[in-house]
Design goal:
Elements (H helix, E strand, L loop, with lengths): L11 E2 L3 E2 L13 E4 L3 E4 L2 E2 L3 E2 L2 E2 L1 H19 L7 H21 L4 E6 L30 E6 L3 E9 L13 H5 L1
Antiparallel strand pairs: 1-6, 2-5, 3-4, 6-7, 8-10, 9-10
């Protein structure tokens, strides 16, 4: 990022490459798109370096021809990723979609697996609370359900029935995480 260099209105600025940061939720997004199993399209913004109203051509060319391809090689190509993490993510997403498709036919609005850590590390974090301080979720027997998933096998947890459900608890105990 050249912006940190300063120099007021006429100083060099730009040079940063940005893309939307995804959270842990699996949502359809537009920043990365897989097109018909043929290619991956990454949509980003690049602040071309400039001084005042003048684009700094050589620096812009460096960003587009050297730095951007390096970012792509380090983040989008399978060979630069940890294969077991990618595989685990894909299997998890398959199981989530499979389970979501079962909810309605079982009269459920949601499901929380036993052992889930609902409280977050902090109010502004998606990361779970540390395992040594968090209390893993355990379903009340009256709401406990069992499902067989294609990758994880049998899972047990709480099936939240459709209708009105009241969720109560202290601050930072996982209510918002559960609702999300």
């Amino acid at each position: 990022d050249q912006a940190a260099a300063g120099g007021g209105w006429r100083g060099e600025k730009g040079g940063n490459i940005n893309i939307s940061k995804a959270g842990q939720q699996v949502l359809q997004r537009t920043s990365i798109v897989v097109v018909a199993d043929k290619f991956v399209e990454a949509r980003c913004t690049i602040a071309l370096p400039a001084a005042g109203r003048t684009i700094l051509g050589e620096k812009a060319a460096n960003i587009l021809t050297l730095q951007l391809p390096q970012v792509v090689r380090g983040s989008l190509l399978f060979g630069s990723l940890q294969a077991e993490h990618v595989q685990q993510h894909v299997l998890s997403v398959e199981d989530q979609e499979f389970l979501r498709n079962l909810l309605a036919q079982h009269g459920l609005a949601a499901f929380v697996r036993n052992g889930a850590v609902l409280p977050r590390k902090a109010g502004n974090s998606d990361k779970p609370m540390a395992a040594d301080t968090a209390v893993p979720f355990v379903s009340p027997a009256s709401l406990e359900r069992t499902f067989e998933l294609p990758n994880s096998g049998k899972i047990v947890g709480m099936g939240i029935p459709t209708g009105i459900t009241l969720i109560v608890g202290g601050g930072f105990h996982g209510k918002s995480t559960l609702l999300q």
